[in-house]
Automatic annotation (TrEMBL):
Origin superkingdom: Bacteria
Residues making up the signal peptide according to the UniProt record: 1-30
Keywords recorded for this protein, A-Z: Signal
CDD domains registered for this protein in UniProt: PBP2_TMBP_like
InterPro entries given in the database record: Bact_solute-bd_prot1, SBP
Full protein name: Carbohydrate ABC transporter substrate-binding protein, CUT1 family
Length: 454
């Protein structure tokens, strides 16, 4: 579906240029020797599943006397910026970094990451074959894994079955976006404080653009054609943007222009939204008695479509080792601990089976306790991940990898700029056409650099 027409050397130079201006706040150097021995500095995204890992990290320290784990835990956008800047400039601040399948193959090609395959091969009990193939492949470069997955995800719709029943509505097994919009209009209830649907509007290439890009894909849109001509003012892209912005403005959550995954998750879990389209990992929180007031009230169906068979994304938060890490073996030991089969059971037994990191290991879905706890969403999650490829989710070929992102280094900047324009449109500050005209200019600049390189 796509072709790679940019060299690893060019990617490295461009990525360094993009992050060189990012300021790094100070922290202890990676692998520093403190009073208790070796300090391992881990940069991590502050999502619920990662916070659970931090809470249990003392068990790793107990198994490795003299090792002191130091976590730098940040919200997604901040974590991306800091980790990218440090890794690209070989800053050496971190021994282990949390990255995604957007970064892993690009950074591996740039020589920024340690090849983990020799470590994996040295520990057959780690069972690389147990990783879901699409997730494993997305973290590989030239047949070697450069990151190991902590959890994997696609996207789907969760909806309040009780509210649908009260309204006399039936959610189809494979909904279209047109149907979702119709349901949102019926279920929107200002007096009860319930939005018809919650969708991300928060700026960030990994925030609002993740769900929006799947809408654009299934509407037949693409960011660039095969000659790297920007397509952000095309009829298809325009239709997708107008649909997404209007749906949020008319039936979405209050303050949508600043709402991301966490904000929508809190709203849905507190009963303030009838539907929510987002990452499949949401289900664990929705069904957690300690976090949600709507436990057992939700159904889960595939990502809505328009012109395509499927439209869900493919994403994984994973752990990688910067090439400059000095204490590689202990860094690998920690990464293996946090992504091993035993860790899955540890989480389930300590925090409940709905808290287990999903979408990563096939064996997770064979654990009886997990299958029972996740009966509403385990199979939908696996099905969504399996179907998440460009052939099923796009109508036209594209020159870049990725579904909910454009897999080029410039997208961290380009995507964020475009998301800011769309967020302004959601906030009513500019029109959709104005947002796309400015976005087209940003994309044309990037496209021209690839045309010149051909």
């Amino acid at each position: 579906m796509f072709r790679r027409c940019f060299t690893s050397a060019r990617r490295g130079g461009l990525a360094v240029a993009l992050v060189a201006a990012l300021a790094l706040s100070g922290c202890a150097g990676a692998g520093a020797l403190g009073a208790g021995g070796q300090t391992l500095v881990v940069a991590i995204v502050s999502n619920p599943q990662m916070n659970d890992a931090i809470e249990l990290s003392h068990r790793f320290e107990a198994q490795h006397p003299g090792v002191d784990l130091k976590f730098v835990s940040l919200p997604e956008n901040q974590a991306r910026a800091k980790i990218t800047a440090s890794t690209a400039t070989e800053g050496g601040e971190f021994d282990v970094v949390m990255i995604s399948n957007f970064e892993a193959p690009q950074w591996a090609a740039n020589g920024w990451l340690e090849n983990l395959q020799p470590y994996i091969d040295a520990h057959p009990e780690y069972d690389e074959a147990d990783f879901i193939p699409s997730i494993r492949d997305s973290l590989s470069y030239e047949d070697s894994m450069y990151a190991v997955p902590f959890y994997g995800e696609s996207s789907f719709v969760t909806y309040r079955e009780d509210l649908f029943e009260q309204a006399g509505l039936t959610m189809p097994p494979n909904p279209t976006w047109e149907q979702i919009a119709e349901f949102a209009a019926v279920l929107d209830d200002d007096q009860a404080g319930i939005a018809g649907i919650c969708l991300r509007g928060k700026p960030g290439w990994g925030e609002s653009l993740a769900p929006f890009n799947t809408v654009a894909n299934t509407f037949g849109a693409r960011w660039f054609d095969m000659d790297w001509n920007a397509q952000l003012t095309s009829p298809e892209f325009t239709a997708a943007a107008e649909f997404y912005v209007n749906l949020i403005r008319e039936h979405g959550e209050v303050g949508a222009s600043s709402a991301g995954f966490s904000e929508c998750g809190n709203r849905y879990a507190q009963g303030q939204a009838a539907m929510w389209y987002d990452a499949t990992v949401m289900a664990g929180t929705n069904e957690s008695p300690s976090d949600s007031t709507v436990v057992g009230k939700s159904g889960y169906v595939p990502a809505p479509v328009a012109e395509t068979e499927s439209s869900g994304w493919l994403y994984t938060w994973s752990l990688a080792m910067p090439k400059v890490t000095e204490h590689k073996q202990i860094a690998w030991d920690f990464m293996r601990w946090m992504t091993d089969k035993d860790f899955v059971r540890m989480i389930g037994e300590e925090f409940g089976w709905n808290a287990v990191p999903p979408g990563c290991r096939l064996s997770t879905y064979e654990i009886p306790e997990y299958r029972e706890a996740a009966s509403a969403y385990a199979q939908p999650t696996l099905d969504a991940i399996k179907k998440a490829d460009q052939q099923r989710t796009m109508t036209e070929p594209v020159p870049y990898p990725g579904i909910q992102f454009v897999g080029i280094p410039e997208f961290q900047d380009l995507g964020t700029r475009v998301s800011q324009q769309l967020s302004a449109a959601i906030a009513g500050q500019i029109s959709v056409s104005e947002a796309l005209e400015q976005s087209q200019e940003y994309a044309e600049t990037v496209g021209k650099s690839y045309q010149e390189a051909q």
